[in-house]
Amino acid sequence: MNSTLLLRRTITKATTSSTNLARRAFATSSSDDDESSLVKTALYDLHKDLGGDMVPFAGYSLPVLYKSENGGVMKEHLWCRSDSKSSLFDVSHMGQIRWFGKDRIKFLERIVVGDINGLSSGSGCLSLVTNVEGGIIDDTVITKYDDYVYMVVNGATKFGDMEHFQKQMDEFGGDVTMEYLEDSMQLLALQGPGAANAVSNILPSGFDLTTMAFMTGSETTLDGIDGCRITRCGYTGEDGFEIAMPAEHAVSIASKLLEDPTVNPTGLGARDSLRLEAGLCLYGHDLNETINPVEGSLAWTMGGPTSRRRAEGGFLGAEKILKPDGKLQKVAKKRVGIMGMKAPAREHTEIYDASGETKIGEVTSGTFSPCLKKPIAMGYVDTELSKVGTEINLKIRGKMQKAEVTKMPFVESRYYRVPE
User: Suppose 27 and one of 55, 110, 144, 145 were both cysteines; which one would form an S-S bond, judging by CB atoms 3.0 to 4.6 Å apart?
Assistant: First the structure.
């Protein structure tokens, strides 16, 4: 058979499969949600007008994909990776929290593993919320400002997170206050090589994006609207921004961005495949309360071997993760990237050693990579078999398929760096 024709058939099959699987995965991820009880973001009607295929997710009704000319998981995914283009995501389900009080930094460094005190004003970091056993309760992006700290947590875990925070505040006893912004503030993510050009259309004149480093944020006006925020961050491996605005202005700001023909509305399905290509975790799948930062290959969120947080600890579960000298505790399993299999390996696919006789782990996320045009996955394997290049087997549909441990990200990240 002609190899080009075979590739086209493979891609077409993968496109249909990824679309159907994405819809099933997200539609069933909140299967207990009654449709009438789902929260609608301020953009719900706009999503419908744009052809959004709405599904339950984290208690909200959100688009998994768009039925439009540039819609569908594959097209939406590739658009986000294309030069001069960007993708617009509604991430208003995520929890936005502001922390106040003179002891806010001290408290936050009790509940997360990162060096919050060391951040300069307007700078942020990805960090992890841990429990007393060192397990990961959630991953979060934290940005420090002069008089408060801004935190974004996952939508599916935000209420449990806040219960945990409140319990810790009660035990802490210092001067710290938590303000949950609820749905009064909506959150959009604009991601892709063209994101800076697109977002500049709604920023004040004189706002210099060339000096805005990745993982920094600023309060600003958007399209003339006060009380907004922009943070240069994202979860696709591309340059991008998360922008927050009052709910009553979300539609006008999103519509303004979508007037730019280089901006494409994008759903949960592509967001998931994009983050997996970038080697990024999805909480509840790749991370949970039984997995610690070392097992999750996220020890870097605590800093390097000589960093203050590694030396001092002080966060919940630190003694389960760190030795007294700041070195990492040994772990039995580690999160790794996986490639080489012929068919996509979905969540819970069993991983075996090279002989195919001994089970060594399990896949936590897997998909067909639209950019690489081949299956990719991540999962946990026994630590002694976690080295890049290690040959393994995956049990897919009852049959063993050869694969190997590979480095992540699968697709090179293109986070913005300020020119020197």
Answer: 55
